[in-house]
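Private note to self, pasted from the team thread so I don't lose it. Backbone tokens:
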């Protein structure tokens, strides 16, 4: 094959691949897109509106909508069904919005706020309604389903760093993470130190992009900032596509604020409805909330009271 022909074929191949790659990225980040959400304003049950499936995916991702009996995702259409209305009402109630079941402007504004990627509701007993059955809500301090926690003899937790994307240097990251851990150490039985051997680490912290192999893909430069798993999993991931800083300015996210929040998840705390708490799910851009509130302290002490 001549070099000229090879170059032409390579160019054609790129023209085929790139649109699909761009579409994949758009679908993953669309729930955090202002334009997409605003185009859905005023939607209500019984309507079919292009883009509603992306709203459904947002509510599924954060624990409000569950189509347990729909393994083929046939309900992920653009139809505003009764399940979507019910889940939207639950979302509105949990964020102290007017409960209408209509996708109004106040709900859109709430969904556009940056937040933790962990869900607010973690167990559904039924797929017919998200406000029936047993599940955890965003009320006060909460624990993960089954109340997982570190064993009583595991009070010194070791952490290490492993990223698939280089975003912040370890020189800058180390003191920030150390400070974030210390805030929890000051109010609990735990101590934290960086592992000298990564294989011994209980907690692994890193920056990752989009689908990074933990079944919880990030959304690009979108709504989700980070997520962490309950004990004793120990994984803590920052979204590499966000703008991170130790001293945030316009459009930047505060590393320590997010780290303190995610460490709460690593210890076993879920989200709190108390907006002053570090464990509240939303973390607006440029905001700095590094100090634990009494609700956070009460939560970790209640979880490990025995």
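Design output:
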């Amino acid at each position: 094959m001549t070099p000229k022909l090879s170059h032409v074929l390579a160019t054609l191949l790129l023209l085929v691949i790139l649109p699909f790659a761009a579409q994949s990225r758009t679908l993953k980040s669309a729930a955090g897109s202002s334009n997409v959400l605003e185009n859905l304003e005023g939607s209500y049950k019984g309507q079919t509106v292009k883009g509603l499936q992306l709203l459904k995916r947002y509510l599924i991702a954060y624990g409000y909508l569950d189509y347990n009996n729909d393994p083929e995702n046939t309900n992920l259409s653009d139809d505003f069904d009764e399940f979507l209305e019910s889940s939207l009402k639950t979302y509105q109630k949990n964020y102290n919005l007017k409960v209408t079941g209509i996708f109004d402007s106040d709900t859109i504004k709430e969904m556009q706020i940056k937040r933790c990627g962990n869900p607010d509701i973690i167990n559904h007993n039924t797929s017919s309604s998200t406000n029936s059955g047993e599940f955890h809500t965003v009320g006060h301090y909460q624990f993960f389903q089954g109340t997982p926690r570190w064993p009583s003899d595991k009070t010194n937790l070791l952490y290490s760093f492993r990223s698939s994307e280089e975003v912040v240097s370890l020189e800058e990251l180390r003191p920030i993470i150390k400070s974030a851990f210390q805030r929890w150490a000051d109010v609990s039985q735990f101590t934290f130190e960086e592992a000298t051997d990564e294989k011994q680490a209980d907690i692994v912290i890193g920056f990752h992009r989009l689908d990074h192999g933990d079944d919880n893909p990030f959304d690009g430069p979108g709504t989700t900032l980070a997520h962490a798993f309950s004990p004793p999993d120990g994984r803590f991931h920052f979204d590499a596509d966000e703008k991170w800083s130790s001293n945030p300015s316009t459009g930047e996210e505060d590393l320590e604020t997010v780290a303190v929040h995610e460490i709460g998840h690593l210890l076993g705390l879920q989200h709190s409805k108390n907006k002053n708490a570090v464990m509240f799910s939303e973390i607006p851009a440029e905001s700095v909330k590094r100090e634990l509130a009494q609700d956070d302290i009460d939560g970790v002490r209640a979880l490990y009271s025995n």
